[in-house]
Structures are given as C-alpha cells and as structure tokens.
Amino acid sequence: MNVFVIIYYTLLLGGSCLAAFYNKRSAFLLLFSLTLVSFILGIVGGVGALRLVAICAGLLALSAMVAYAFREFLVAIAPTNLAKELRTAPLTAGFGMFIIFTYAIAGIFAPWIAPFGEAQIISSAFAPPDETMLLGADQLGRDMFSRVIFGARNTVALALAGTVMAFLLGALAGLLAATTGGWFDQILARTSDVIMSIPSLIFALLMLSIFGGELANNTTAFYLLTIFAGVTGLLVVTAVSERSVMGWIIGLAVLGGVSAAFALGMLVIFNPSEIILILVVAVIYSPRVFRLTRAVAGNVVVMDYIEAAKLRGERTWYLIRREILPNSTAPLVAEFGLEFCFVFLLIAGLSFLGLGIQPPTADWGSMVRENATLISFGDVTPLIPAGAIALLTVAINFVVDWMLHRSSGLKG
Amino acid sequence: MKKNKDQVLLDKLADAARTGTISRRSFMNYAAAAGLTASAATGLWGTSAAANPTSGGTFRWGVHDGNTSDTHDPGTYVTRQMIFLAHTHRSYLTMIEADNSLGPDLATGWEATPDAKQWTFKLNPDASFHSGKKVTSQDVIDSLNHHRGDASTSAAKALLTDVTDVTADGDNAVVISLARGNADLPWLMTDYHFAICPSNGDGTIDWKSGDGSGPYKIDSGEFGIRWELTRHDGWHLDGAYFDKVTMLVLNDPNARQTALVTGDVDCISLIELKTLALLERNPNVSIDNIPSGGAITMPMHCDTAPFDDVNVRNALKLAMNRDEIIEKISFGAATKGNDFHLSPVQPYWPDDIPQRDYDPDQAKSLLKKAGQEGLTVNLSVADSVYTGAVDMCVLYAEQAKAAGINIKVVREPNDGYYSDVWLKKPFSAVSWGARPTPDVMFTLAYKDDAAWNESRWQNERFNELLLQAKGELDDSLRAEMYREMCLLMRDDGGTIIPFFNNWVYARGKGVKRHENVAASWSCDGARAASRWWFEA
Amino acid sequence: MGDILGLVGKRLGLGLGILLIISAIIFFMVELLPGDIAEAVLGQGATPENLAALRKEMGLDQPALVRYFGWLANAVTLDFGNSIVTGESVVDTISSRLANTLFLATYAAVIAVPISIVLGVLVALLRNSIFDRVVNVLTLTSISSPEFFLGYILILYLAVKTGMFPAIASLSNDMTFGELLHRTFLPALTLVLVVTAHMMRMTRAAIINLLASPYIEMARLKGTPPWKVIVKHALPNAWAPIINVVALNLAYLITGVVLVEVVFVYPGIGQALVDAVSKRDFPVVQACCLIFAATFILLNLAADVGAILTNPRLRHPK
Which of B152, B259, B418 sits opposite C50 (nearest CB)? Predict the structure, then answer.
C-alpha cells in the first residue's frame, strides 16, 4: 500500500459520500461504481492501472473545467440572444468549441506561434523531445510541434474549403431536385450516380494525374474554379429566376461576376495544385451530399405544409429557403461533421499515391503516413498528427451533436 | 588495385566503427562486400561461425514490389517480384557469384577472339528444363533473339544492339558475334532479362508456361500475390538446399516487417530504413546491409539554362551535404556518391578520386562566376523514386539555401513519373538499378546519343574513351580509361549522385547464408533461394 | 407494388445507360493519363523502337475511338476481352479477386451493420448520457485516423503483441471456413471500425431528428416507454436516411478497400485495379470500374426502394 493508493481511494470514497449526502444520484453512482471497478483493476493491474485511471480522470476533469470556463467566457462576451443559446450547450459542446477555437488560433497565427519554420531542419532525425522541441523531431530533424501547428493551417484550410464547396454544390442541387422533381431531378440524380459509381480513390487518381503536373497552373485553376462556381450558381439562378427571362438575364450577369471574384479570391489563398485538390475533393463529395439532401428533403416535400405552401403560390426559392431547408438541417449538419474528417482522410490516402499536398508543406495526413511503420515498434511519432486529426474530428462532432439536439427542438 | 580498394574501404569501415555509426552486423557485411576474407574481417570484430549448409525446409520469402499485371515474359520483367522469381526458376548464361565475381550458370566457360568481337559460350550438358528437356544451344539462341530484331518488344533490346548474330556451334556451344568489340559481354549476360527459356522450335520461345532450367520449378502461383516452388532435382549447379520455396508478395513495408517478426516469413527483401535501427534490436532477426551499385541520381539538362553552365552544375553539386542525406534519408544504409556513376562494389572503381564534400561557400563563388547568384531552380521528384526521395530533395533544398540557391521541390505523381518527368524536366531525381559493368552504365545513360542520356551531356573526350575502353581486353589500361571518364563525369557532367543505396534485407531465425553475398540484387543477388539454407 | 416493380425496371434500364457513360468516361480518362500502356510495361527500359513494336503488338496504333467501340462491341456480348499486358482473359484475371473482395465485404458488413444500427438506436435512446459520449468519442476516433494506420495499430496489438490473429491475410486454397474467418479477421475488423461510425451517427441523427415530432410527443404522453417510442415510432420513419448511408458504406466496403488490402496483403480486386491503372491496362480497369459501378447502382436502387417501402407517404404519392 503506497501513499498514492491510499489517497486514491480516500478521494473516491469521500467523493461518493459527499455526492450521496447532497442527493446527487448520478454523480454518486458514477463515483462509487468507479470505486468498485478500481478494486478489481487494482488487483488485476496493480498500481499502474490505478494511476492510469487517475490520469484519465484528471484529464477528463481538466477538459470539463476548460469546457465550462470556455462556455462561461463565451456567454459573458456574447450578445444576449446568443448567450441564451450558449447557456444550453452541454459541456461536451463547450469542449468542442474550445478545441475548434484553439485550432483556429493555431492555424491563423501559425507563423507566430510555431517556434520554427515548417521546413526548417534543426536537429538530427527523430531527436527526442527537449526544452526547445516540445514533441521532438521528425524524420528529417524538423520540429514536430511546429509542423503540427502549421498542419492545422494547411490541412484544415484545405479540408474546410473542399467540404464547404462540396456542400454548397451538393446541398443546393439536392434541395432543388427534391423540390422541382421531374426530369430535372432525374438528370441531377443520374449525374451524381455516374460520379459516385467511380470509386473515389481511383477517380481522384485519374483526375489528379490528368490535371496535376503541367496543367497545375494559375490559368487552369482559375478556369476550373470559375466553372465550378458557375455550375453552383446556375442552380441558384434556376431556383430564383422562376422561368422568367428577365430573372435569367440578371441572374446570369450576377453569377458571372460572382464566380470570377470567387475564383480570384481562392487563388489568393491557395496555390494551383491545392486548388485542383480542393476541386477534386468537392467533385467527389458533392454527389454524396446531394443524395443525402435529396433523400431528407424528399421526406419533407411530401409533408402537408409544403403542399399548402405550393397551393399558396410560393416560389421554389421560398420553399427551399423557408420550408424545406430548416426542416432538413439536422442530418445535413451531422453529415458535414463527418464528411469534413473524411476529406482529411482522402487527402492522406492521396498522398499514399504521391498526389497529396506539395512538400515541404506540413499536412497531418502525410505526417501520419510518413512515419506510420514506426508504430509497429511502439514509437509514438505517427500518433501525434493522428491524434491531432482525431481531436478535431471529435470536437467538431461534439458541437454538431449539440446543434443537432437544439435544431430537433428536443428539450432536455 | 584490388588491395588498394580494400584498404580504402577498410579505413572507412574502421572509422565508422570507431565513431559508432555502424553496427557490428553492418560492419561484417560491409567487410564481406568489400571482398575481405572472412579471417580479415573477423580479425577486426571477433568470431563468425563457419558455414555448413544442410538441406530441407520450406523457405518463405516475402518480396516487395509485385504487380498483378506482371508476366513471365523476360523482355518485360520490371518488378522485383519477377526478378527474384526469374533467378529462382530460370537460368542465365553466366551469373554474379556471391563474392561479386563472374561465374558460370548455364555456360561452363567462355572465350573471345582478340578483338572481343566474337564470343563462344560452352553450355553445361547436364542442364535441363523442368519439363525434362535438355538445354541446348537452340534454346539459348532463341532466348537471346527474343530481345533482338525489329519486332522485339523487349526492354533489354538496347543492350544487344551491337550483336549481329547468335549461332550454334553444335548442341552445346553458342557463338555471339558483335559489330564492335565488347570485353564485357559475359557480364552483360547476367542481366535479368536474359533468362533462358525453352525454344518453341520456330525461333520463338515459350515464356508463357513458366518453364525454366533454374533451381526450383513453379508448382502454382499468381502474379502479384504468391508463388509455390519445389526443388528441381536435375539442377546443373550446387546449392538449392530448401525443399520448397514460397514467395509472398508483400508490398506494404509494415506488412513485410510484421510478417518477419511474427514468423510468417523467413526473409524479407526490403526493410523500411526508418525502422532499421528498431528492427536490429530484435534478436530473432538478422539484417543484411549490403552496399550496391544502384544509385540515386539527379540529372540536370546540360543544354538548358541555367544548367548549361558548368559552374552552375558544380555549384549545385557542392551545395549538397551528402553525409546528412545519408544519415537522415538512408539511415546510414548507403555509400556516399562522388558524382560519377560507379560504386565501390563495382569493377573498375577508381579509388583515388577525391571525395566532393559540402562547401556552400565555394558553391556561392562558382555561382558568382556564372553570374547566377540567388539562383532558383525546380527539382522534380516522386515518392516512388526511392523511399524518402521527396524528403531527400526537401533536405537538399534546405542545405542549398546556405549557398544562396533556392531549390523548389516539385512532387510529381508516382504514376507516369518515368514517362513524363524523367528525361523531360530539366532537373529531377531518378533511381538506377545496378548495371554489371561501367561500360553498360555509361553507354546507357551518359553516351552522347544514348536514348537515356538523362543529363543531355555531350563530352567528346568521354565518348571517345567510352568506345576505346569497350574493346580493350587489357584490364589495367581499361581501368585507367574508366578513371579518366569518372573524373570527367565528376567535374563536367550534369548528374549529381548523392549516394549509392544499399540492399537492406532481413532474415528470420535459423536462415543461414555464406560469408559473402552478391551485391547485384537484394537477397544475395536475388538468388537467396538457391544459396541459403536453414540451420539444422 | 406494381409501381415499385416499374420503378425497379426503369432504374435498371437507366443503370445500363449509366454503365455505358461510365465506360466512356473511364476509357477517355485512361487515354488522357500521361504515358501509355507500352511505356508503362517497358518502364525505364523503353526506347522508341521497342515502344513502337509493343504498341503494334497491343493494337495501340489504332485510333482511340476505334479501340473503344471495338471493346464496346464485345462488351455488350459480355465478352470483356483480354488484358492487354498479360494476354489473359479479364474474367479469369479478376473473378477470384472479386470473390475475395465480396467475401471480405460481406464479413465486415455482417458485423458492422447490425452493430451500428443497434448502437445508433441505443445512443439515441440514451442521448447525452456518458454512454452516448463514450460511444461517440470511440467511433469518431476510429474513423479519424487513416485506415491503413488503424490497420497498423490493430496488427501491433492483436497480431504482434498478443498473437491472437495472423498479421497477414494471404489466402491459400486448402483453408477451412473457420481458418478463413480467423485469418481475415483483422482486415474485416479494420473495415468495421471504418464504416461503423458513419452508419451509427446517421441512425442517431435520423432518430433524434424525429423525436420532437408531434406523433412522438403523443406516443410519449400516452406513457409508451422510451425504447418503444424509438423502436416502434421513430425508427420506421428514420429508415430512409439510414438505408441511404448503409448503402453508401456497403458500396465502400467493396470499392474503397485498396489500402486495407495492401496493409493486410489480401488478394482483393482493389489492388488489381490500382495495378491495372498504373499499367494503363484498359480492359482490366474498365472491367473493375464497371463492376464497382454496377455494385453501386444496385445498392443505390436497393436503398431507394427501401426508402419508398419504409415511407408510406412516398409509397402512396398524392
């Protein structure tokens, strides 16, 4: 019996008694069952296992405290309406928001936060962590910590851009298809079938092999982006213009300008090969979003209130915006959280084929891949970027869960 | 000459051993590869058991680089799977012995006319195919002709362009006539494409059936997946100690290592160098780290600005810290390059050419001379070139910054790299397999009109020497010529050679090998199945 | 019911059309790829002379359109031709691979689909509890590392350290069914981990989305126990999105497992496809892609039919 074990059980038992005294049923059950489990764990796994439990509990408590503080902080600074909403957020959502906030800060201010450059070689390969290098060095002797920070910038920006574009195109097309139906619906559905029927890795391999290399320049990227934005915008125009000639003309004019501006904007942020990667991702994922949106919206369209709105003479755009979209947000938001991390993984898989992000740009997926074999020897190097991806995924989905819960209108 | 070379290597090795950059195991292998006798090597490091092969067992061999669409056609052998398999189920005229000398396979002896224009190979009368048919001169003639002529689709066609005729001299001798003298022809016959297949009798060969005259015959198998082989009892040479051989294609580095560690295979043909040090700690695994003639090159197009200036080329050569690259990319499993395409394990390696080292200051001054200060160049590379090839270029780019050179690394797709980037982009990274002699290598990639003159280098003196050396049967004169050519490549050529990569493969518990292993391919010159054995 | 049969017939017809379009897309994409089959086969050994000879032998000297329609004419008679590289019949080349892939997909699906739906219902029932959070965190973590990495971790713990399962899933002909299941357990488990989270979360989302509906409120007010509310009232209306996601993931199990095949040395069709693409072996690429596409179309059709069958409103449109 060492001191640690004694303190461990004293705290647990004390906690359970306090919880029982103040009638906190669930807290008591949790604490006391943990005590009972600890008896068994202590016998089987010894002090080490108990220490592990203590560390986990400590981490959990720490994240809970961080989450609580962060939520209160947001409530304090947010305007009244938003603050009211935020107050309903569970701790997990608070934690998720905190992580997303941290990643955003890390990504935006990466050059100032990271102690070293992403390509800077400062030590020998796989140097262990020390005061200057928090997480040690990678295979070339670059600072792992700096690369993880830069990875937040590069990977998240790429994945976010790809996912958002896939959602814009997919969701718009899905809503429109479900609302208008008929041959329009059929064409869109069959097009998405065609794209989806080609396995994504092969599709990406083919597309990137064709558009990579020589064609990866500003002009190609600009045209491709404009075409993409144009197709997306065309869907909006179709919905808004309602077959009026004037509507079409104005719509198309606005659309042309917006598309070109969008393409130029993207070119400022990303380089051409990244843009092509984003577009490939968007094209691969938009049919998935389309299918889901169409299915969800299809269930909404048959509702009586839509029928009523149609009889009222509401326009398609109104139906989409005010009736269908609000009633199908929840599954879409849930899908967004998942698709976002699938995009990470697709990019990592592409770097398997030598088609991912250009070196020496730090990217989490490639960082996992480069050192993946080390895991077989119990070396944790590849776990660091993998952990970074996992943490962000979990965080995003915690927030998504909360929004899902809220939008479903459930109380408690 | 030979003695001298050993001395240089030995000094290097002793140095490495002192500074602790080399393990005992690696030391033994280097020493063996350097041609040291066992006693000389053991004198430095302690004891090593004498070899006494025993027969029996199934050798499970995990090989890398296999493709579903491979075929038995020797003309299009390209993956390592096929190279390993070819050396296991087929035979060649000659072979590279475990001590890296040239030895007999199907041919028991060979001789040339004094101008080296006509070579006669005597065939082993005991040799037979797995079908039971004897190997005759007709089989050899048709097998060689498979790589010749207009209709040939062989990748080795370029190697035989000088051959004017292949004729029989009775059932057991073949005469090869050449347009120009070639002292290296017997070495050339070890090329993995020149496997001998049974003749169909109409001038073509039967490669489809997979019949061969090698140590093991194929029972069953599937390309890119696995092969099952049994010993060929009528094999014409000594060895082939295993009863059966199972070849498993394990393309994933982790799958290979795990399979070896869990005992699912007895040998793996390639180790990921990152994990070399970690795997070395496993007591059940023996690692062979063998210097080879395979090189990583970075050709610059000598006819394209800014590489048309020799000062720029040399500045780029000087801006590379090869030691750091070997340490971080090859994890020590490489031999430092000196910008000429000949490795210390190959014949005619000149030992007295000073090593070029990292010197950013001199590089800077050369650039100043060329009026190219603050030079920016693009360097194309793909992951598939070599494990860590992209990292290598990134590292080089960092090193070159000290010389004021800005290298932009362009990662090209693996797919189609050799058709769209190599020979087309002015500065790229390439991996070369070992060729048996300097003549083959130089003719292939440095001769002015060679299809693969990857650096587009035109040097009159070099080309003149190349032709002279080819027909020269006097070894010391030849060595002198190759030395001069190497100097030209180093000081005028357009190719940076960071290093010659080692073969790094591993054997599981109980798999034994002789003191020496061939450096021509991984796994003892791809002949592990016929040279190794299980400990009794 | 007649409507549905009509729909199935129409969709199958459309499916054939889609296959035709895909075959053209794939053909021209492969054509657009840099390099051609002769260059790929000869690799670094290519010279202008042997390239020309090989192209002629492979029939690449004909224009692309002629080759495409030549292929198409045979394909409509279900003759998928021979691999250009090996000369073997395409059907022989990929049929055993396809069988392996289908086996692995079935294995993974049999485990993953029930688990994820049951888990989805459970977490919807116990939403926002510790159980919900833990299941969420675990499944999300499992899908957020690349699948080859997940495979490596499973190999480390279940094969190298404990030796419970073999690390490589190479097959031989004389295996019993039990051995087969044992040997392919790790790749199947990897796939299960990859697809479970998606299906489970969609089930959860779809159910929770319905819980605020008046008829659920009604059921609850009647005093129906929570599990019954979900299983009897919410679930039937949530099938449409769930079936959709299940179909997507089933298709993924067949078409997207290249990396898992590589990691576990499993002789499936994905590796054959990647190899064929790298060699530009058009007939094999085409056959694999068409198989994948057909799988997809059939699964999607099944999902749509399922969605209609489970939603009375769609079944009887006004």
Answer: B152
Q: Looking at residue A55, what is its pLDDT?
A: 87
Nearest CB to C53 within list B67, B150, B262: B150
First CA to last CA across chain B, in angstroms?
Answer: 40
Rounded CA-CA distance B93/B74 in Å is 14
ipTM > 0.90? Answer: no
pLDDT in tens, A66-93: 988 998 888 888 888 888 888 888 888 8
B277 touching chain A per CB within 8 A: no
**SS3 state of residue B433:** coil
pLDDT tens per residue, range C142-153: 877 777 788 888
Cβ proximity of A251 and A235 under 8 Å: no
pLDDT digits (tens, 9 = 90+) for C241-287: 888 889 888 988 888 788 788 888 888 888 888 888 878 888 888 88
Q: Are C303 and C109 in contact (CB under 8 A)?
A: no
| Nearest residue in A to C262, CA atom | A352
The answer to whether the CB atoms of C205 and A288 lie below 8 A apart is no
Structure tokens at B463: 């080309």
CATH 3.10.105.10 fits B291-502, yes or no: yes
CATH, domain range B55-73+214-284+509-535:
3.40.190.10
Tokens of C191: 């796939």
Q: What's residue B20's pLDDT?
A: 42
For chains A and B, CB pairs below 8 A equal 76
Q: Which two tokens stand for residue B221?
A: 């198998």
Question: Within 10 Å of residue B317's Cβ, how many Cβ atoms?
Answer: 26
Q: Residues in chain B with pLDDT < 70? A: 1-51, 415
pLDDT of residue C307: 80
Residues A206 and A328 in one domain: yes
The candidate with the shortest Cα–Cα distance to A287, out of A137, A167, A141, A115, is A167
Distance CA C164, CA B262 (A): 11
pLDDT value, residue B150: 81
Please, are residues B59 and B245 in contact by the beta-carbon 8 Å criterion?
A: yes
Same structural domain for residues A196 and A52? no
Residue B38 DSSP SS3? helix
Q: Which of the residues A25, A187, A197 would you substitute to probe the C interface, choosing the one with the greatest number of C C-beta atoms within 10 Å?
A: A197
Contact B315, B325 (CB under 8 A): no
Tell me, what's the pLDDT at C314? Answer: 63
CB-CB neighbors (< 8 A) of A371 in chain B: 274
Pairwise CB contact (< 8 Å): C156 & A405: no
Residue B495 pairs in a beta bridge with B299
CATH superfamily of B91-211: Dipeptide-binding Protein; Domain 1 (3.90.76.10)
Q: Are residues A66 and A149 in the same domain?
A: no
Q: Determine the pLDDT at residue B459.
A: 92
Write the pLDDT tens digit of every residue in A29-43: 878 888 888 888 878
More confident residue, B91 or A46: B91
Q: Which CATH number do you get for residue C147? A: 1.10.3720.10
A64 touching chain C per CB within 8 A: no
Q: Identify the pLDDT of residue A214.
A: 64
Q: Which two tokens stand for residue A78?
A: 């947010």
Output Rg (C-alpha) for chain A, integer angstroms: 26
* Closest chain B residue to the Cα of C50, Cα to Cα: B153
Q: Are B99 and B516 in contact (CB under 8 A)?
A: yes
Which of left, alpha, beta for C282 (phi over 0: left; psi -120 to 50: alpha)? alpha
Note the pLDDT of residue A370: 79
Quick check: A202 and C273 CB within 8 A? yes
Torsion angle of the four alpha carbons B210, B216, B222, B225, in this order, in degrees rounded to the nearest 10: -140
Residue-by-residue DSSP string for B354-380: PPP---HHHHHHHHHHHT-TT-EEEEE
What are the phi and psi torsion angles at B282 (to 5°)?
Answer: -75, 120
